[in-house]
Amino acid sequence: MEILTDGLRFPEGPVVLPNGDLAVVEIEAGQITRIKADGTKNIIAKVGGGPNGMAIGPDGYLYICNNGGFNFVEMETPLGKILFPHGQADDYAGGSIQRVNPDSGEVQIIYTQCNGRNLCGPNDIIFDEQGGFWFTDHGKNDGASRKRDIVGVFYAKIDGSHIEEVIFPMENPNGIGLSPDGKRLYVAETYTCALWAFDVVEPGKISPVANLAGNGGHFLYRPEGYKYFDSLGVENEGNICVATIGTSGISVISPMGELVEFVPTLDPMTTNICWGGNDMRDAYICLSGTGKILKYKWPRAGLKLNFA
């Protein structure tokens, strides 16, 4: 394991760019940052709010789930200073889906609503092979009003012509990914620390099954102990790698819902993973609380994403 870079302000949404550079969002700084192989950084775009998930679209642009912003607290710990999100930002004005030109840094907003309802806290995003994208809305916790949003999972097109809430209700859905054959959609809930699988029957459509949660999914896995699930990535052979907060690291879960292994990290706010390199075994893990990117030679290849 090595630290590729540090000094980031709550990095998330890692994406390996076509030239091999890594791009991440910095939620607290409201920006997209490029990281080169030697760890040097430069800003791609200032997007404001709280950029969270990110993916490359069929047009080569970066698509951003912007949660509208968090308040943050920075605490001194034995690991050093750690940044923690703490409720919605004081200037929160809603969530959005943004499109960013990675060359010019131009930012466009393509969605802020679905069927007249505002997006609350878009969180993570994945493109299917048809060029549409699934995304989670994590919602917001408002301590002042003691309210928490009831939210779901959406499917949309990049030209702004279609957005639909496909899965509802969910408890603060966070990470999202597709199986290698595209026939299963995986969603991790944060506070229940549950991983769900949904049967995809056509672009933007699922075949729901009956369950106690009422969301139409198959329950796959929940770890023991007090933990949270964050974002996720999928390996080439189908395992689901879920960033795990608390007892921090990456939980590797088989498509059958069995724990394959747990890869520990030193940051309690370990939030995401992606892969790059010629063999797709260079794993980049977001150590968000300490503002670092961990580079690790993963034991198995990550799945090459559509359009990445």
From TrEMBL:
Residue numbers binding substrate: N123
Active site as annotated: D230
Keywords noted in UniProt: Metal-binding, Zinc
Domain SMP-30/Gluconolactonase/LRE-like region: residue ranges: 10-286
Any one GO MF annotation of this record: metal ion binding
Coiled coil segments of this chain: none
Cofactor(s) needed by this chain: Zn(2+)
Domain of life assignment: Bacteria
Keyword Calcium appears in the UniProt entry: no
Entry-linked InterPro entries: 6-blade_b-propeller_TolB-like, SGL, SMP-30, SMP-30/CGR1_Lactonase
Pfam families: SGL (PF08450)
Signal sequence coordinates: none
Record-given protein name: Gluconolaconase
Residues given in the record as a divalent metal cation binding sites: N174, D230
Disulfide bond recorded as keyword: no
Native organism taxonomy: Bacteria, Pseudomonadati, Pseudomonadota, Alphaproteobacteria, Sphingomonadales
Cofactor comment text: Binds 1 divalent metal cation per subunit.
